């Protein structure tokens, strides 16, 4: 969103206005014509500027290219401002510049507050309804309205309302399903569902708020949290699923075939179903994007699951040896060596690989970033490897760096080099799964280890970034999937999983709803929200395309619909697994 800023200049000379973003080149905005002294009319020019970042405005003379004034300001959304320039001395062309607020910016966060209150109201009604349903007269009255034929039997029964447990016990199939549900860690599905719901909301537009969009380059927004969390919880699920299959007697070869098949299907779905825009014509290899979200998930799953299968045992929870406090780490030392080798490869390629016309170890966005010194070096070695191995036409053509930094080189945030660190992320999630296996029925041990891992990852992130957005050794960067990004996201993931595990599985204060339902049908919800993104009722024509309120209403409606769909599928016990 922009702020409109007219510039009034009573100067008798032509001047030009430029804009500066941090660490960028000045960008030309407009020529300001000289004032008309006979008509006493000042020269004016109107421009629109971005309001996400603080800006520096520079007004300079077109004669002699001399700077007249410079102002730093953070403009507000839909505000109307005037930069009034007055001549103080004609002899040496001294001027004054005053920024005047003609119309104050709007409070763009009111729609978020309103939406929050609406959802809190719905939640309060659901909680009140659930409480009332525990009262026998109220429950019997509701059943009477919903099913009049069964009213007499229910009210006159000495046992009161039918017992759900008894009903389940009458059906062996339902009994088996219920037993499996009790053993399942609901916190994992809740964590996965929370990540997925935020991902769907962000992909649908996030109400057009900048913090629900991916960061242009270094740094974090809400949108940058969800994909690595999804990768993390996939690693956690690998530990639990493989252990279960082996305990039930499946051979490792059979499990490996299942792993390969699932990875193949995920990659195929990403390339054929989710990836292309069929509105632009039939699928064509000439401009087909090869990397993607599902492709990265599929390959990451293949590597981490195969690595775990190679070293896991059916009796993994019975390890005995020295240092029992490290029983979830020491038996798997070859896995850790493999991951350290992978990370060494990432570091060497990132910082030592020669990239034509770019400095060695460059991590910047290219374009006008870094004061325009390296316009064609977007992503450094990561971008170079993708362009070399995949070809520019098979990469993402509109990277987030193009918005602010005006980079023109294609760059894929799901590229080859970053996949190494997504494997590291999934492996850390795998470690969380091993903790739950080794310390089963010991919630204090599980939570303490989640906390320790979260602290360790946070300390590593602080060292790598120097607690700075731009000045660290390795900045946090989602486009690059830098190692500091992985450690930071792992820190958040361990702490978040700790909280959800405590609330859902330990204290049972929260059932995990509504996030539990999409978490148990994650592939269907992800693919569905991509395929039907441009269809009603998930999208419709808006009256004001600049309105946060309209965008937020549309995006929240679409996201809520997918939660409702997943709830219906949950109730019908329909789960799409690959």
From TrEMBL:
Residues 184-304 form the Heparan-alpha-glucosaminide N-acetyltransferase catalytic domain. Keywords: Membrane, Signal, Transmembrane, Transmembrane helix. GO terms for molecular function: acyltransferase activity. The keyword Protein biosynthesis does not apply. Residues 1-26 form the signal peptide. GO terms for biological process: lysosomal transport; protein complex oligomerization. The chain crosses the membrane at residues 112-133, 191-211, 226-247, 259-278, 293-311, 332-353, 416-439, 446-464, 484-503, 515-532, 552-570. InterPro entries: HGSNAT_cat. One of its GO terms (cellular component) is lysosomal membrane. This is Heparan-alpha-glucosaminide N-acetyltransferase isoform X1.
């Amino acid at each position: 969103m922009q702020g409109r800023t007219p510039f009034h200049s009573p100067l008798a000379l032509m001047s030009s206005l430029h804009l500066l973003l941090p660490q960028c080149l000045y960008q030309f905005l407009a020529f300001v014509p000289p004032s008309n002294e006979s008509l006493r009319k000042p020269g004016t020019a109107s421009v629109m500027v971005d309001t996400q970042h603080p800006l520096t405005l520079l007004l300079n003379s077109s004669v002699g290219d001399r700077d007249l004034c410079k102002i730093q300001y953070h403009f507000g959304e839909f505000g109307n401002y005037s930069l009034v320039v007055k001549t103080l001395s004609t002899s040496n062309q001294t001027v004054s510049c005053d920024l005047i607020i003609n119309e104050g910016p709007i409070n763009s966060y009111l729609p978020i507050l309103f939406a929050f209150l609406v959802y809190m109201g719905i939640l309060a009604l659901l909680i009140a309804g659930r409480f009332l349903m525990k009262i026998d007269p109220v429950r019997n009255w509701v059943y009477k309205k919903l099913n009049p034929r069964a009213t007499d039997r229910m009210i006159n029964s000495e046992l009161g309302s039918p017992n759900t447990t008894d009903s389940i016990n009458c059906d062996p199939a339902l009994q088996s399903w219920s037993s499996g549900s009790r053993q399942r860690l609901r916190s994992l599905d809740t964590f996965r569902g929370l990540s997925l719901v935020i991902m769907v909301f962000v992909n649908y537009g996030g109400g057009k708020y900048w913090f629900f969009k991916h960061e242009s380059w270094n740094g974090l927004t809400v949108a940058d949290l969800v994909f690595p969390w999804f990768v993390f919880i996939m690693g956690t699920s690998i530990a639990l699923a493989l252990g279960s299959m082996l305990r039930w007697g499946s051979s490792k070869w059979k499990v490996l075939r299942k792993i390969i098949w699932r990875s193949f299907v995920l990659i195929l779905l990403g390339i054929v179903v989710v990836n292309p825009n069929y509105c632009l014509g039939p699928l064509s290899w000439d401009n087909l994007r090869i990397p993607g979200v599902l492709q990265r998930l599929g390959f990451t799953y293949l590597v981490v699951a195969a690595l775990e299968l190679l070293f896991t045992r059916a009796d993994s929870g019975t390890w005995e040896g020295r240092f029992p406090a490290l029983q979830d780490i020491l038996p798997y030392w070859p896995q850790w060596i493999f991951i350290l080798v992978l990370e060494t490869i990432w570091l060497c390629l990132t910082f030592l690989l020669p990239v034509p016309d770019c400095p060695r170890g460059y991590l910047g966005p290219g374009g006008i970033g870094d004061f325009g010194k390296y316009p064609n070096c977007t992503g450094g070695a990561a971008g170079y490897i993708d362009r070399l191995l995949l070809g520019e036409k098979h990469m993402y053509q509109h990277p987030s760096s193009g918005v602010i930094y005006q980079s023109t080189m294609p760059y894929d945030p799901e590229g080859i080099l970053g996949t190494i660190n997504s494997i590291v992320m999934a492996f850390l999630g795998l470690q969380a799964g091993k903790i739950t296996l080794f310390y089963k029925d010991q919630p204090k041990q599980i939570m303490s280890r989640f906390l320790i891992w979260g602290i360790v990852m946070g300390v590593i992130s602080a060292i790598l970034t120097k607690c700075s957005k731009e000045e660290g050794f390795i900045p946090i960067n989602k486009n690059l999937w830098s190692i500091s990004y992985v450690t930071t996201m792992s820190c958040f993931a361990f702490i978040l999983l700790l909280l959800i595990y405590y609330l859902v599985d330990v204290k049972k204060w929260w059932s995990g709803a509504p996030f539990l339902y999409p978490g148990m049908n994650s592939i269907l919800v992800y693919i569905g929200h991509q395929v039907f993104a441009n269809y009603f009722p998930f999208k419709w024509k808006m009256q004001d395309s600049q309105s946060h309120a309209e965008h937020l209403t549309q995006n929240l409606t679409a996201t809520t619909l997918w939660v409702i769909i997943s709830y219906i599928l949950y109730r019908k016990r329909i789960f799409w697994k690959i």
